[in-house]
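Kindly go through one protein, given below as sequence and tokens. The question is how this chain folds according to its tokens.

***
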Amino acid sequence: MERLEYGNTGLEISRLCFGAGHLNNICANYAEGGDLLREAFNQGITFWDTAEGYGSQPHLGAALKGIERGQVVIQTKTGAKDYDGAQESIQRSLREMGTDYLDVLLLHGISSPEDLESREGALSAFLDAKSKGLVRAIGCSTHLHTGPVMDAVIDHPEIQVILATANKEGRMLEGGPLDQHLEYLRRAYDLGKGLSIMKVIAAGRIAESEFEDWIRWGFELEIAHGINLGMSNRSEIDFDVRIAREHARRRLRKVA
């Protein structure tokens, strides 16, 4: 499994990321979700993405009971806007996952420059938590591509990580065409931001026969450190891991 530095965060991640947002919908209990995450871990997936709003953090907590904490990088998110709300979210995330720290904490779903500005209180809480060792890197997620939004998150001095929508046809990307969006992502990458992409298969809104081609596009987007894919069973883990490993082998052959 390909592993790499997550921008300038100092964190090392597996390029294939387990998107855990859907676990509450597919698992009968937290233990079942934990088993699925451990299976992914056993196949080399050491980067997990969740959010407070998904309700899936306890699944990660169940998985961590069988894994040394330092072996995985956990990225979570909160929609909190003010300082006190963000502090509460941080403590809830730590408690639900049974961990002493969060690797990456994101402002969830930034929709405009004004939205980012309105969350400065939350960002201040992030920074205080980071200074105490409760959080290692901070950033935001956004589904949008418009110049003002991307400029705001890319140029913000405290944003270390960006999770953005990207797929081969630009589906579910709000606000602008894919080619311009990729230019913004390139700028973020060049500035050393940790960059992950989501909605790689448009949330499954394409024919299943096209999944592999769309996922390969994600891995071929070299500016993306992490390829965030939701996996619902062991067959899907096997499928995604095979594509990730094949891409890594091709990349090594090119280098050689």
